[in-house]
Amino acid sequence: MKGNLYNLFRERFPESLTRPFIETPAGGRYSYGDLERESARYARFLTGLGLQPSDRVAAQIEKSPAAVFLYLGCLRAGLIYLPLNPAYRTAEIEYYLDDAEPGAVVCRPSDLAGMRDLAAPRGLQHIYTLDADGQGTLTEACGSRGDEFDTRRVSPDDTAVLLYTSGTTGRPKGAMITHGNLAANALALHQAWGWRPDDVLLHALPLFHIHGLFVACHCVLLNGTKMILLPKFDVPAIIRLLPKATVFMGVPTFYTRLLADPAFGRDVCGHMRLFVSGSAPLLPQTFDEFQQRTGHTILERYGMTETGMNTSNPLDGPRCPGTVGKPLPGVSVRVVNDRDQPLPAGEVGQLQVKGDNVFKGYWRRPEKTAEDFTTDGYFRTGDLARLDGDGYVSIVGRAKDLIITGGLNVYPKEIETCIEKLDGVVESAVIGAPHPDFGEAVLAVVVRAPGREDVTEAGILAALTQKIAGYKVPKRVFFVPELPRNTMGKVQKNLLRERYTDLS
Fold first, then answer.
1. Domain ranges, residue 348
2. Residue 11: pLDDT band by 50, 70, 90 thresholds?
3. Residue 455 φ/ψ, nearest 5 degrees
4. Is 291 part of a structural domain of the chain?
5. Is 20 part of a structural domain of the chain?
6. pLDDT at position 281
7. Same domain as 137, residue 35
8. How far apart are CA 406 and CA 395, in angstroms?
9. Please, which residues bridge with residue 201 across strands?
10. Tell me, what DSSP letter sits at residue 132?
11. How far apart are the first and last CA of the chain?
């Protein structure tokens, strides 16, 4: 691809721009012509504010067609789009504003006062609102602008999106994902999953992370076809709408909840071509039950914020439960030891990936970027994996101690820091435990100060609810006299995971 990612999409639009792009359950209809005009309005307005290429636009908004158009408008303007989870609390937003230094922020109308309070001491002047119906001060401001815009020329190496991820330090890092990264990954997925001219995607994922915003939307845009955009995951709505779709993408939690509904079965899925699962491991029993109930075999793939998708089970060929398939076109993977030496098939080691899909580095963190890349250009994923003789990859663990609950990333250190700031707490350890619905549940193991039995599970959970997003709040808090440690003083979380597996 040469230049702006939007131009690649534009080349794939249907010949008639009156063809549908987005439909909503509430009756909304948006064509490819609407996409072209609305994205132009946003691009024209944002550049009219004086924002220059590579300036950041932060968006903490609800899922909606307008949110998709805003993202595409930022692409066209050469701006860097920064999507933020609507569940983030004040302290979390403060960090992103300080680190990313956006030139403009778009938030929900209900969050406007709080966002202004955060923006004032930071000199951030451009704050606008956008609600789930596509209304707000941003829409009003764009109304008087024209609906034509010459998409800016950019290099494939220019950053298109800033997505924050974290690690064992708990300090979120901004992954700089380029126009070229996104294009390479979208083209590989479009090819690997055999998109057809009549495909319709049922979109139930959020738009603030890579799965929903890129994997799903980009495939539709490259295909020039339609998606049905659900505001959120809703089992009855999905069962009602699946007969109108051919492709569905979800996290394992989606599939366990669908299977829990007796109305979900073969008759509902008769029109479907492909079910894709990712963002967390799919349990073998879910894989088998889905196959038996529907006659469809879920296609599992593997990716991460910094790389997009790396591997996929085949469209044609065996989809092996417990594996995430083979490398996508243009992606190289290897499993290595601590010295970056490739290991024989079947041995567990550290997974590394290389390809045009891999991000160019962490925002203002050159030292971390250098640390996470090998001398020959492979990215250290931090995941532990096994590569079999047929080239299938199995993820067996996460070296970075990441917890994935309901398809969302949770970084223990961030939660531990919050807990340890509470009065009466000495230290804590946050772990993931198997959960039949979420895949993993967040648990906290806490050491209280002597004589502080007034520090309770309910009190800790109530305090955390005010500080962090709900999906990060532990399902349970357990109290111990001390945390288990090895001879080097490191907390042995493996022992805690063995001990705390029952959530009842």
1. 300-398
2. very high
3. -80, 110
4. no
5. no
6. 79
7. yes
8. 17
9. 227, 247
10. T
11. 52
